[in-house]
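4.2 Preliminary Data

To establish feasibility before requesting continued support, the project team ran the inverse folding procedure on a target of 484 residues. The structure was first converted into the token representation described in Section 3, and no sequence information of any kind was made available to the design step. The complete token record follows.
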């Protein structure tokens, strides 16, 4: 199969899968879920085949449609996109396994709609990953927002509808009012929105204008959940856990930080940003988000709320590493996208496992639960250690390179933020592990593990978190191909 056909199939496959899932419907649940797993597996294989081509010097640009002369929705292959696509496509397989156990175990309504929307969300995410220009990325970025809205409001309660309104309000508001403005402005100045090495702005563009544009882009990408545009993320926790996994680990927020990283490297260029000094402010805003969100997480008794604010904090590690503008920090930012994906999805899977087996939602209810759910809580411990940045987990590697990148440019503020936030991470994760394994329970203990599909999925992602630490060579090699 040619590279052109492979590129088109990364979107066509999940779209076709969603149609067959809809046809199978509620009457053929086993077939519906088999189609989901088959589609996810085929997509991962296609992305792997594209990964095999990433080392070549030339890659075709496939134009899907050209609604405006000179502006096409187009796809191409580059290392950052392959990294993002590999993470998302692999985790779609695991999330599908998990969803089977969770949706059935909790007798969730509208399961077919869930699987259809999930497949379409992955198709849009693949579009973001392989976008050849900022216009294409914007189109697929907006599609993710619209397609995931039914997932956020899945339960149909007033709380879910309110969360959905906030979700759309924040994400559409920032993208239309800020991001779209920045894209149009860039097009009017440069005549191009293509992602190219070194960026598209020449030396004649004033530093003040670059600053304004960069601010518009960063705050316009609301999916990155940087304060003050973060409230939609904790509010969306009303959705089922597989949706939370999609929002926090697989697609939505990763599309946000991936977009910031990609436009920094390929639209502005890190040398241009460093020379103009227009990214310095991002370091402080991202650093403040890291620390404030960590403090808020420390005060949350609801487990999913604690994980949600942890996500807000962890995403800004990518933003801060990007703002350092050192080659090693860009490397660390890309690495943290993968490390956070595996660690955080493990934590949400564990939270859903606890709810499915025991209907417990609060940290204060978890005394002794590690002995009744050893697989779940061991996986939770591994995910927690990765978020803190402790070996042998992937989170240690990304923080290690962040610190190295900060040291190379003597950015002591970033170093201080990483050290303090790591202590805060430990403060809100380690007590959960402690009460789970080292405190006796006063609550009902007549339950065991969640259904096998749930436990299998969280075990795989926990092992993946460790394997990324033990065997990181392929991941490192891929990121090193990024032409900064």
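Position-by-position output of the design step:
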């Amino acid at each position: 199969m040619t590279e052109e056909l492979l590129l088109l199939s990364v979107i066509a496959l999940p779209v076709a899968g969603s149609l067959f899932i809809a046809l199978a419907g509620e009457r053929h649940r086993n077939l519906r879920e088999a189609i989901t797993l088959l589609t996810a597996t085929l997509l991962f294989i296609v992305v792997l085949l594209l990964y095999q081509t990433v080392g070549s010097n030339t890659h075709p640009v496939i134009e899907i449609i050209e609604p405006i002369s000179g502006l096409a929705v187009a796809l191409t292959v580059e290392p950052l996109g392959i990294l993002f696509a590999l993470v998302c496509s692999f985790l779609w397989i695991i999330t599908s396994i998990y969803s089977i156990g969770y949706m059935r175990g909790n007798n969730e309504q509208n399961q077919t709609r869930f699987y259809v929307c999930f497949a379409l969300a992955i198709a849009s995410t693949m579009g973001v990953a392989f976008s050849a220009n900022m216009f294409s990325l914007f189109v697929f970025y907006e599609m993710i927002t619209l397609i995931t809205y039914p997932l956020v409001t899945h339960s149909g309660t007033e709380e879910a509808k309110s969360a959905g309104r906030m979700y759309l309000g924040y994400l559409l508001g920032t993208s239309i009012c800020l991001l779209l403005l920045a894209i149009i402005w860039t097009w009017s100045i440069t005549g191009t929105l293509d992602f190219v090495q070194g960026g598209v702005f020449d030396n004649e563009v004033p530093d003040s204008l670059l600053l304004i544009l960069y601010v518009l882009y960063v705050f316009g990408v609301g999916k990155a959940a940087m304060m003050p545009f973060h409230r939609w993320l904790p509010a969306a926790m009303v959705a089922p856990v597989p949706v939370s996994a999609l929002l926090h680990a697989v697609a939505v927020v990763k599309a946000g930080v991936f977009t910031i990283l990609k436009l920094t490297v390929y639209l502005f260029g890190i040398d241009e940003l460093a020379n103009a000094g227009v990214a310095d402010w991002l370091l402080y805003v991202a650093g403040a988000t890291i620390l404030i969100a960590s403090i808020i997480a420390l005060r949350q008794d609801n487990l999913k709320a604690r994980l949600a604010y942890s996500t807000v904090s962890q995403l800004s590690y990518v933003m801060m590493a990007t703002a350092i503008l050192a080659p090693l920090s860009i490397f660390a930012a890309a690495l943290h996208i993968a490390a956070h994906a595996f660690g955080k999805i493990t934590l949400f899977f564990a939270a859903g496992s606890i709810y499915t087996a025991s209907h417990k939602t609060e940290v204060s209810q978890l005394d002794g639960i590690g002995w009744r759910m050893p697989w779940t809580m061991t996986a939770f411990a591994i995910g927690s250690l990765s978020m803190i940045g402790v070996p042998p987990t992937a989170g240690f590697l990304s923080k290690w390179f962040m610190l190295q990148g900060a040291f190379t440019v003597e950015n002591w503020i970033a170093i201080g933020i990483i050290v303090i936030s790591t202590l805060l991470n430990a403060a809100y994760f380690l007590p959960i592990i402690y009460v789970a394994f080292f405190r006796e329970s006063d609550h009902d203990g007549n339950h065991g593990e969640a259904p096998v599909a749930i436990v299998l999925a969280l075990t795989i992602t926990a092992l993946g978190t460790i394997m990324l630490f033990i065997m990181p060579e392929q991941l490192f090699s891929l990121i090193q191909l990024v032409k900064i």
